[in-house]
Amino acid sequence: MNRLENKVAVITGGTAGIGAATALLFAREGAKVTVWGRSEKRGEEFVRSAAGQGLDIAYDKVDTSDFEGVKAGMKKVYDRYGKIDILINNAGITRDSTMKKMTVEQWQEVIDVNLTGVFYCTKAVSEYMLAAGYGRIVNASSVVGLYGNFGQTNYVATKAGIIGMTKTLAREFGRKGITVNAVAPGFIATDMVAAMPEEVLAGMKAKVPVGRLGDPEDIAYAYLYLASDEASYVNGATLSVDGGMTV
Ligand code: NAD
After folding, report:
1. How far is the CA of 192 from the centre of ligand 1 (A)?
2. pTM: predicted TM-score of the whole model, two decimal places
C-alpha cells in the first residue's frame, strides 16, 4: 500500500538509526524523501544503499542547529518538488553526565540540536505548510522526556520541551490543516543506545514487558501513521512506543 503517495517528506538526522529506517519506509510508501544530516560521506553512502534497494532518496547536508542552513535546506526541497508535506524532526544527540559533572558545553550542545533545532526546522517548514494549508509535523521526544532519567538533565529537558512545543503548535496550526504530534520511543537498538554501558542496557531490557529493545522500524511505523492522512484527527499527541515499558 502506498500510504504516502506523492507526499514530500523531510527527515532530519535521516542517514542513521531511526531516521534512516523512516526514510526507507516512507520511500517504499511512495513519498519523495529528503534526508538531512551533517556528514556528506554518510549521506552519500545512505543514498547509494537506498538506490540499491530501488529507492530514490535525496540527501542534503543540513545541520539543524544552524537556522540559515535550515532555511536554505527547506527552500531547496521546495524548489525540487514544489511543496513540503511532512517534516520529521528526528535529529537528536546525547551528551550524558550527572548534574555534578555536566559542563555548560554539554548542556548547550544538546539544547542547540534537540530543542532549538526542532524550533528552526518547524519555523522554516511552516512557511510552506501554511501557504499550502496542509502539513504533518512529527517530533522525536522520548520516554525519558515523560519520566526523567538519571544522568540526562540536558537530554530530558529537551525531550520534555518537545512535548510542550508539540502541544502548543498543535493549537496554533490545527485550523490551518497542519497537525503536530510527538513520538516517545523507549529504548531502541541504534548507535545512540549502543553507546550506553552494558549494565544499564541489561537493566533497561528487563523493564520492557515485550522483553526486547525496540527496532528502528518500530518507531518508523509510528512516524508513518502520524505522517499519514489517516491520522488527520490526531493532533498534539505524544505516542509512546516503548514495548509497554512505561505502563
Ligand atoms: P542516531 O544517533 O542513531 O541518529 C541520529 C541522527 O541524527 C544521526 O545521523 C546524527 O548524525 C543526526 N544528527 C545529530 N545532530 C544533527 C544535527 N544537528 N543536524 C542534522 N543531523 C543531526 O539516533 P537514533 O537513536 O536514531 O534517534 C533518533 C531520534 O530518536 C533522536 O531524536 C533521539 O533522541 C530519539 N530517541 C531515540 C531513542 C533510542 O533509544 N535510540 C529513544 C528515545 C528517543
Report:
1. 7
2. 0.98
